[in-house]
Design brief:
The chain is an alpha+beta fold. It is 33% helix and 16% strand. The protein contains 4 helices and 5 strands. A 3-stranded antiparallel sheet has the order 2-1-3. The chain is globular, with a radius of gyration of 17 Å. 6% of the residues are buried.
Length: 141
Amino acid sequence: MIQYSLHCSKGHQYDAWFKNAAAFDEQQARGIVTCAVCGDAGIEKALMAPAVARTDNERVSLSSAQPDAVQLRALLRAYRQKVISEADYVGDKFAEEARKIHFEEVEARGIYGEATRDDVIALAEDGVDFMPLPDLPEEHN
């Protein structure tokens, strides 16, 4: 699996996972890589620093007060709520049901549930489109 930082022609930035570099190129050529924020198909890879394994336990600086982060969390919460309210919960049968939908063995519908890491890798290898359902802590008052 490979993670890319992507940006659309409208300036939105987000990260996405792909089986490998060729999978990104193939999906982009088919026009199915779209902006997670606005749906724009004008997607390009952003400049990224390579991931380097650390050997120490040094802490990384994080921010929760950045205005875009607050807006993104609100969008992710709204997306999660929309999926939960409109899709069918299939529990630990997610990978099995997603494959059936992908291979048109059953009628297409929105589903959500759980999958193991191995299930996620296998779904990506099979070309099944899916995305993680964000799980964010509730807002603090």
